[in-house]
Amino acid sequence: MTLSIQGRTAIVTGAARGVGLAIARHFVERGARVMLADGDEAALNSVISDYQDVPDARRFIGNMSEKLAMANLLSATLDAFDRVDILVNAHRFVRSSDPLDTDIDAVEEMLRQNMLAGLRLSQIVAKRMIRQAEDDGEQVQAGAIVNVSTLAARRPVPSMLGYSIACAAQEQATRGLALALAPHRIRVNGVSFSSVMSHELQCALKETPEKRGQIIAGTPLGRIAAADELAETVQYLVSEGARFVTGQIVTVDGGRSLADPVTAQIL
Protein backbone atom coordinates (compact mmCIF):
# COMPACT_ATOMS: atom_id res chain seq x y z
CA MET A 1 0.00 0.00 0.00
CA THR A 2 1.38 3.40 -0.96
CA LEU A 3 0.52 6.54 0.94
CA SER A 4 2.71 8.78 -1.19
CA ILE A 5 1.33 12.12 -2.37
CA GLN A 6 4.65 13.29 -3.81
CA GLY A 7 4.26 15.47 -6.87
CA ARG A 8 0.48 15.68 -6.63
CA THR A 9 -1.33 19.01 -6.51
CA ALA A 10 -3.69 19.81 -3.65
CA ILE A 11 -6.01 22.65 -2.70
CA VAL A 12 -6.54 22.98 1.06
CA THR A 13 -9.11 25.48 2.33
CA GLY A 14 -9.12 26.84 5.86
CA ALA A 15 -5.34 26.66 5.66
CA ALA A 16 -4.46 29.71 7.75
CA ARG A 17 -4.74 27.98 11.12
CA GLY A 18 -5.65 24.87 13.06
CA VAL A 19 -6.61 21.67 11.29
CA GLY A 20 -6.48 23.16 7.78
CA LEU A 21 -2.98 24.51 8.36
CA ALA A 22 -1.81 21.18 9.78
CA ILE A 23 -3.09 19.36 6.68
CA ALA A 24 -1.48 21.86 4.30
CA ARG A 25 1.89 21.68 6.09
CA HIS A 26 1.74 17.90 6.23
CA PHE A 27 1.15 17.75 2.48
CA VAL A 28 3.99 20.16 1.68
CA GLU A 29 6.40 18.22 3.89
CA ARG A 30 5.52 15.05 1.96
CA GLY A 31 6.27 16.48 -1.43
CA ALA A 32 2.85 17.64 -2.60
CA ARG A 33 2.28 20.92 -4.39
CA VAL A 34 -0.18 22.83 -2.23
CA MET A 35 -2.40 25.87 -2.69
CA LEU A 36 -3.22 27.16 0.78
CA ALA A 37 -6.56 28.99 0.70
CA ASP A 38 -8.21 31.10 3.37
CA GLY A 39 -10.13 34.32 3.84
CA ASP A 40 -7.92 35.60 6.67
CA GLU A 41 -5.22 37.53 4.82
CA ALA A 42 -3.06 38.39 7.83
CA ALA A 43 -3.03 34.85 9.19
CA LEU A 44 -2.36 33.29 5.79
CA ASN A 45 0.44 35.74 5.01
CA SER A 46 2.08 34.79 8.30
CA VAL A 47 1.87 31.12 7.39
CA ILE A 48 3.13 31.46 3.85
CA SER A 49 6.16 33.47 5.01
CA ASP A 50 7.52 30.15 6.32
CA TYR A 51 7.50 28.84 2.73
CA GLN A 52 9.16 31.73 0.88
CA ASP A 53 11.80 29.37 -0.50
CA VAL A 54 9.33 26.55 -1.22
CA PRO A 55 7.93 26.95 -4.76
CA ASP A 56 5.44 24.14 -4.20
CA ALA A 57 3.52 26.11 -1.56
CA ARG A 58 1.35 28.99 -2.75
CA ARG A 59 -1.42 31.05 -1.18
CA PHE A 60 -4.88 32.21 -2.19
CA ILE A 61 -6.86 34.76 -0.21
CA GLY A 62 -10.61 34.82 -0.68
CA ASN A 63 -13.99 34.16 0.90
CA MET A 64 -14.53 30.45 0.35
CA SER A 65 -18.31 30.87 0.45
CA GLU A 66 -18.35 33.08 -2.68
CA LYS A 67 -18.63 31.47 -6.11
CA LEU A 68 -16.27 33.96 -7.75
CA ALA A 69 -13.60 33.27 -5.15
CA MET A 70 -13.93 29.53 -5.80
CA ALA A 71 -13.47 29.99 -9.55
CA ASN A 72 -10.50 32.25 -8.93
CA LEU A 73 -8.99 29.71 -6.54
CA LEU A 74 -9.09 27.01 -9.20
CA SER A 75 -7.63 29.39 -11.80
CA ALA A 76 -4.82 30.39 -9.44
CA THR A 77 -4.03 26.73 -8.76
CA LEU A 78 -3.91 25.89 -12.46
CA ASP A 79 -1.73 28.93 -13.16
CA ALA A 80 0.70 27.85 -10.46
CA PHE A 81 0.71 24.08 -10.90
CA ASP A 82 -1.14 23.30 -14.14
CA ARG A 83 -3.49 20.75 -12.56
CA VAL A 84 -5.33 19.73 -9.38
CA ASP A 85 -5.44 16.18 -8.00
CA ILE A 86 -6.67 16.67 -4.43
CA LEU A 87 -9.17 18.93 -2.70
CA VAL A 88 -9.45 19.17 1.06
CA ASN A 89 -12.39 21.23 2.30
CA ALA A 90 -11.11 22.06 5.78
CA HIS A 91 -12.70 25.49 6.07
CA ARG A 92 -15.13 25.55 9.00
CA PHE A 93 -17.26 28.30 10.50
CA VAL A 94 -18.11 27.61 14.13
CA ARG A 95 -20.57 29.68 16.12
CA SER A 96 -22.83 28.88 19.05
CA SER A 97 -26.58 29.30 18.68
CA ASP A 98 -29.66 29.20 20.87
CA PRO A 99 -31.81 26.18 19.93
CA LEU A 100 -34.94 28.21 20.83
CA ASP A 101 -33.92 31.22 18.75
CA THR A 102 -35.89 31.58 15.54
CA ASP A 103 -33.11 33.47 13.77
CA ILE A 104 -33.09 31.36 10.62
CA ASP A 105 -30.42 33.58 9.05
CA ALA A 106 -27.86 32.23 11.53
CA VAL A 107 -28.62 28.64 10.51
CA GLU A 108 -28.47 29.58 6.84
CA GLU A 109 -25.05 31.15 7.39
CA MET A 110 -23.82 27.95 9.02
CA LEU A 111 -25.06 25.92 6.05
CA ARG A 112 -23.55 28.34 3.55
CA GLN A 113 -20.15 28.39 5.20
CA ASN A 114 -19.84 24.75 6.27
CA MET A 115 -21.74 22.77 3.64
CA LEU A 116 -22.57 24.75 0.51
CA ALA A 117 -19.09 26.27 0.19
CA GLY A 118 -17.40 22.87 0.18
CA LEU A 119 -20.04 21.35 -2.08
CA ARG A 120 -19.75 24.07 -4.70
CA LEU A 121 -15.97 24.06 -4.65
CA SER A 122 -16.00 20.27 -4.98
CA GLN A 123 -18.24 20.53 -8.05
CA ILE A 124 -15.96 23.10 -9.69
CA VAL A 125 -12.79 21.14 -8.95
CA ALA A 126 -14.36 17.80 -9.95
CA LYS A 127 -15.12 19.13 -13.42
CA ARG A 128 -11.44 19.99 -13.83
CA MET A 129 -10.40 16.56 -12.55
CA ILE A 130 -12.68 14.92 -15.13
CA ARG A 131 -11.12 16.92 -17.97
CA GLN A 132 -7.65 16.02 -16.73
CA ALA A 133 -8.56 12.33 -16.62
CA GLU A 134 -9.61 12.46 -20.27
CA ASP A 135 -6.14 13.73 -21.14
CA ASP A 136 -4.28 11.44 -18.73
CA GLY A 137 -5.90 8.22 -19.93
CA GLU A 138 -6.62 5.20 -17.77
CA GLN A 139 -5.51 5.32 -14.17
CA VAL A 140 -6.80 4.11 -10.82
CA GLN A 141 -8.11 7.48 -9.71
CA ALA A 142 -8.75 10.81 -11.38
CA GLY A 143 -8.88 12.75 -8.14
CA ALA A 144 -9.70 12.68 -4.44
CA ILE A 145 -11.79 14.98 -2.28
CA VAL A 146 -11.93 15.05 1.52
CA ASN A 147 -14.41 17.05 3.61
CA VAL A 148 -13.49 17.84 7.21
CA SER A 149 -16.22 18.02 9.86
CA THR A 150 -16.70 17.19 13.52
CA LEU A 151 -18.71 14.80 15.66
CA ALA A 152 -21.33 17.53 16.00
CA ALA A 153 -22.86 15.96 12.87
CA ARG A 154 -23.89 12.87 14.82
CA ARG A 155 -23.73 13.98 18.46
CA PRO A 156 -25.66 17.28 18.46
CA VAL A 157 -24.84 19.93 21.04
CA PRO A 158 -27.84 22.13 21.94
CA SER A 159 -25.71 25.28 22.10
CA MET A 160 -24.36 24.59 18.60
CA LEU A 161 -27.53 23.45 16.87
CA GLY A 162 -26.92 25.35 13.62
CA TYR A 163 -23.37 24.05 13.35
CA SER A 164 -24.55 20.48 14.06
CA ILE A 165 -27.12 20.72 11.26
CA ALA A 166 -24.48 22.04 8.85
CA CYS A 167 -22.02 19.25 9.72
CA ALA A 168 -24.68 16.59 9.19
CA ALA A 169 -25.58 18.10 5.83
CA GLN A 170 -21.91 18.15 4.84
CA GLU A 171 -21.50 14.46 5.62
CA GLN A 172 -24.55 13.58 3.52
CA ALA A 173 -23.19 15.74 0.69
CA THR A 174 -19.97 13.71 0.95
CA ARG A 175 -21.87 10.46 0.42
CA GLY A 176 -23.95 11.87 -2.43
CA LEU A 177 -20.93 13.27 -4.26
CA ALA A 178 -19.09 9.98 -3.80
CA LEU A 179 -21.83 8.16 -5.71
CA ALA A 180 -22.10 10.85 -8.38
CA LEU A 181 -18.36 11.05 -9.04
CA ALA A 182 -17.46 7.35 -8.76
CA PRO A 183 -18.02 6.73 -12.52
CA HIS A 184 -15.43 9.44 -13.16
CA ARG A 185 -12.93 7.72 -10.82
CA ILE A 186 -13.04 10.59 -8.32
CA ARG A 187 -13.23 9.47 -4.70
CA VAL A 188 -14.97 11.56 -2.02
CA ASN A 189 -14.59 10.89 1.70
CA GLY A 190 -14.95 12.73 4.96
CA VAL A 191 -13.06 13.02 8.24
CA SER A 192 -15.02 13.69 11.41
CA PHE A 193 -12.96 14.64 14.43
CA SER A 194 -13.12 15.38 18.13
CA SER A 195 -10.53 15.59 20.91
CA VAL A 196 -8.15 17.08 18.32
CA MET A 197 -6.31 20.35 18.91
CA SER A 198 -8.16 22.53 16.42
CA HIS A 199 -8.01 26.32 16.39
CA GLU A 200 -11.43 26.47 18.05
CA LEU A 201 -10.35 24.10 20.81
CA GLN A 202 -7.19 26.12 21.42
CA CYS A 203 -9.30 29.25 21.88
CA ALA A 204 -11.75 27.43 24.16
CA LEU A 205 -8.97 26.11 26.38
CA LYS A 206 -7.50 29.58 26.77
CA GLU A 207 -10.84 30.85 28.08
CA THR A 208 -11.68 27.81 30.19
CA PRO A 209 -8.55 25.72 30.91
CA GLU A 210 -10.56 23.27 33.02
CA LYS A 211 -12.13 21.90 29.83
CA ARG A 212 -8.86 20.14 29.02
CA GLY A 213 -9.34 17.69 31.85
CA GLN A 214 -12.99 17.16 30.92
CA ILE A 215 -12.11 16.36 27.31
CA ILE A 216 -9.32 13.99 28.28
CA ALA A 217 -11.58 12.25 30.80
CA GLY A 218 -14.22 11.77 28.08
CA THR A 219 -11.73 10.38 25.55
CA PRO A 220 -11.00 6.65 25.96
CA LEU A 221 -7.44 7.00 24.66
CA GLY A 222 -6.88 9.58 27.39
CA ARG A 223 -5.42 12.54 25.53
CA ILE A 224 -6.02 15.34 23.05
CA ALA A 225 -4.52 14.60 19.63
CA ALA A 226 -2.32 16.98 17.68
CA ALA A 227 -3.80 18.30 14.45
CA ASP A 228 -1.00 16.51 12.59
CA GLU A 229 -2.55 13.19 13.54
CA LEU A 230 -5.72 14.16 11.70
CA ALA A 231 -3.60 15.22 8.72
CA GLU A 232 -2.17 11.70 8.50
CA THR A 233 -5.68 10.29 8.12
CA VAL A 234 -6.42 12.80 5.36
CA GLN A 235 -3.21 11.77 3.58
CA TYR A 236 -4.34 8.15 3.64
CA LEU A 237 -7.73 9.02 2.17
CA VAL A 238 -6.26 10.92 -0.79
CA SER A 239 -3.50 8.38 -1.47
CA GLU A 240 -3.49 5.31 -3.69
CA GLY A 241 -3.61 3.26 -0.50
CA ALA A 242 -7.29 4.20 -0.23
CA ARG A 243 -8.04 3.71 -3.94
CA PHE A 244 -11.10 1.52 -3.17
CA VAL A 245 -12.45 3.76 -0.38
CA THR A 246 -15.18 6.29 -1.19
CA GLY A 247 -18.26 7.72 0.49
CA GLN A 248 -16.89 7.03 3.97
CA ILE A 249 -16.77 9.27 7.03
CA VAL A 250 -13.67 8.33 9.01
CA THR A 251 -13.90 9.23 12.69
CA VAL A 252 -10.73 10.46 14.40
CA ASP A 253 -11.61 11.01 18.05
CA GLY A 254 -9.67 8.63 20.30
CA GLY A 255 -12.86 6.68 20.90
CA ARG A 256 -14.74 9.69 22.25
CA SER A 257 -17.87 9.08 20.19
CA LEU A 258 -18.22 5.71 21.91
CA ALA A 259 -18.44 7.20 25.38
CA ASP A 260 -19.36 10.88 25.17
CA PRO A 261 -22.61 12.13 26.68
CA VAL A 262 -24.82 13.98 24.20
CA THR A 263 -24.37 17.23 26.05
CA ALA A 264 -20.55 17.20 25.89
CA GLN A 265 -18.75 20.04 24.18
CA ILE A 266 -17.60 18.95 20.71
CA LEU A 267 -14.89 20.94 18.95
Structure report:
It is a single chain. The protein is α/β, with parallel strands linked by helices and 267 residues long. It has one domain: 3-Layer(aba) Sandwich (Rossmann fold), CATH 3.40.50.720. It has nine helices and seven strands, in the order E-H-E-H-E-H-E-H-E-H-E-H-H-H-E-H. It has helices at 18-29, 41-48, 67-81, 104-136, 161-181, 199-207, 211-217, 227-238, 256-259, and strands at residues 9-13, 33-38, 57-61, 86-89, 143-150, 186-193, 249-252. It has a seven-stranded parallel β-sheet with strand order 3-2-1-4-5-6-7, sandwiched between helices. Strand 1, helix 1 and strand 2 form a beta-alpha-beta unit. Helix 4 packs parallel to helix 5 (161-181). It is globular. 45% of the residues are buried.
What is the gist of this entry?
By secondary structure, this protein is of the alpha/beta class. It has helices spanning 18-29, 41-48, 67-81, 104-136, 161-181, 199-207, 211-217, 227-238, 256-259; strands at residues 9-13, 33-38, 57-61, 86-89, 143-150, 186-193, 249-252.
- State the end-to-end distance: 32 Å
Please identify, by name, the CATH architecture: 3-Layer(aba) Sandwich
**Backbone shape:** globular
> What is the radius of gyration?
18 Å
Helix content: 40-55%
Q: Quick one: how many beta strands?
A: 7
CATH class: Alpha Beta
What is the helix tally?
9
Name the average pLDDT.
92
Keywords: Oxidoreductase
Protein name: 7-alpha-hydroxysteroid dehydrogenase
Pfam family, one: adh_short_C2
Family: Belongs to the short-chain dehydrogenases/reductases (SDR) family.
